[in-house]
Amino acid sequence: MKSPFTYKHTAPQMEGERQPAIFLLHGMGSNEDDLPQLVKEFEKTHHIFSLRGPIVFKPGYAFFTTDGEDKPDREIFDKVVTYIRSFIYEAIEEYNLHLDHIYILGFSQGAVLAQTLALTMGSVISGVVALSGYLPDFVKDEYSKHPVDHLNIFISHGDYDYVIPSQLGLESKNYFEVHGANVSFKTYEDGHGVTPENLQDLVVFLKEN
Known about the structure:
By secondary structure, the chain is α/β, with parallel strands linked by helices. It has five helices and nine strands.
């Protein structure tokens, strides 16, 4: 891989055929070690790529900076979307990934990016898990987008999330449904995090889709 990203990769045990992949995008202040625990059940069957955000944001890293709860720094955001898209395409080629089974799972700003990539990469992305995120207005209004009527997407949020209000997750759900995606939307009695029930539901979603 020629990508500038720092990342962790685990390969499935099976060999000799195209295999599915899950790309993981962490939240602000975290790192590439945060999310793999959520998809441990898929380590034997999927390539798993966990990317580290390129921006130092103590105690960890970030993929982009913001000037408000739903306003990413546009210049940085545009660049990181382009770089992640290139990473996914490069991984598809280098690891001979199954083109019908490419998934992205993101938490917080990772969920913002996961939803954006689903819109901009079209049929390359089969499914998305977006935990406690949102879809920026400028992505909806200004980005070049592809159809998402093939897409399965799981969107979840904590009812008491004061970092990214659950209303923004609901708006994402409505947007994707209007554009034909198959959406599963769930909320939990939680803040900005992932409850055991949330984890169970996202694992079921990935297994079913």
